[in-house]
Design a protein that fits this description.
The chain is mainly α. It has 25 helices and 13 strands. It is elongated, with a radius of gyration of 32 Å.
Length: about 575
Amino acid sequence: MSLPWRSSSLARPRTLSVLEGGIPFMRLAGFNLTPAKILRVQYKPTSVRMHWIDRAAKALLKRGKKHVIASGISVSGHIHIGHCNDVFIADGVRRALKELGGEGQAFWYADDFDPMRRIPWPLNEGELAERYKRYLGMPYINIPSPDSKYENFVDYFARPFIESLDDFGIEVKIYSGAKIYQSGKMAELTKTALKHANKIRAILNRYRSKPLPEGWLPYDALCERCGRLATTRSLSWHDNYVSYRCEGSDYVAGCGHEGEADFTKGQGKLTWRVEWPARWKLLGVTCEPFGKDHAVVGGSYDTGKLIAKQVFKCNAPYPVPYEWVSLKGRRMSSSEGVVFTLPQWLETAEPELLRYFIFRSKPMKAKEFDPGLALLDLYDEYDLVEQVHFGMVEASARRKKQFKRIYQLSQLRETPRRPVQRVPFRFATVLTQVMRDEKHAISVLISRGMLTDPSESDIKLAFRRLSCARNWVSKHAPERLRFKVAETLLTEAVQRLTKKQKQGLTQLAADLSSRDFTPIELHNHIYELAQRVGLKAPELFKAIYLALLGRESGPRAGNFISVLDKGFVISRFKEVAP
RNA sequence: GGGCCCGUAGCGCAGUCUGGCUAGCGCACCGGCCUUUUAAGCCGGGUGUCGAGGGUUCGAAUCCCUCCGGGCCCGCCA
């Protein structure tokens, strides 16, 4: 059927049924619609449901072609997957910009010159806590590492994160706040801020219940005597110097020292609310994701926007606020040790899954992560999205479009062209506990139809998943999903078997040696056998598990036995009733 | 005091920006199947006042207003 208004590819009617069924219905219902009105309904284009990453990229392109996307975190402890929103989103926008014909560069900025307000986990436990107390109020970069393998506190917490970024397909330039201050690059902007201290104070006071005092300066000097940053109050400034007194703060005492800090040499820093817009100016930031704490009215983004405009004469970046991630229902917190880090993620889940986790829902939607059983669902969901992407699973056009984009954003780099062969993670958790070696695992996977004529990369993916499954079983799985084939027959297990159960096992051993079974055949055979020897099926199952595992339940039996070495199973069953 | 998010099936959620096809997905559940299923079974089934009320509209889960419930953030400091 050809419809005249379909000439424009965009102006497709939403659906035909609306047109065909809708109008008569409306007439029947007594509505007197003018043709124009009907046409407007008909011409309604298919709604273009864009992923929020693309929406951000599109908005940026309206402003210009080249963009700098910022992300950054205060290195106040372990950097966890909640923090990843920042850098993952920044990188996602960069990628989307590129796809839309723009240019983007993303960076990650370590706020490593901020003072330590609280001793983070795990340094807040035992004797370490005592040792680290003295560093309260000092910049992170000047605090030693608890582990000699790392240069300092910042290296200790940030390096595992930074080094993992590549594994997640993140391409960002790394900056260090401390280094930037020490290099003198912030000197000019610091001077500008000091010159406009009154203006800045007025901006900040708009949102403060307790106004900043007269003579307040937006600068935190580093005390040359005690090395603290949080304790000083800036009194005045001249040339390149800010004079200060080390008075103390609410969480740590000052040393009383009075001195001068050279702001061209990194002897102090701008206070956060001013530092942020100064950084936008310095690095030409045009887009930045940030946590909802900054996004609140009167928060640092609001004041930063005004300071940027009025003091630094630049525009605030396009904001992408995001919600936080909780871990098993608790708010992730590096200081309290409620963390799940990137290296931890890689142990138990594929990197694509974390990207998927972040990009699947809107940024301001709170996310909940649970590495336990819920991770299985995440795997299944990811696999499903992948299958929809490759057209192996049917989905509505709208859903398909949405899934495809999320799938693309979840890829580390290029989106695979051909369908990927996946081992279902749930099966991987069983296989990894019984497989003898890689060759064996492959043959099992092939015999199950989970791998068909696998390529090298299919095999690689399968082993990556098996390795994740192994780690997951040992670290996050509930006890009932863990099992270990008993090295020798446990006498305790034998004692728990009835005479009939023993007979059943002996017979099963005989049957196994007389012919081959597929897993399903074997499973069915167990039922038949139970009946033959006068047992209820569950009793025979229990016997099998007791003999093999030393406990009463285990993975699906036919499956399980056929993965084990046949000779071993036969002799184990025979052993039960010598 | 201000702001944000959430409220849709038993549970977890998508859909809301940009109103429109029969409100969808996963898990759970229910029924059936191979005489029999413990952990890759297979097939079938939606079990729903879209938090409440009002408004706009030919049409509202979707837009507007009010309210209720839950969570979080800011108002010190990132």
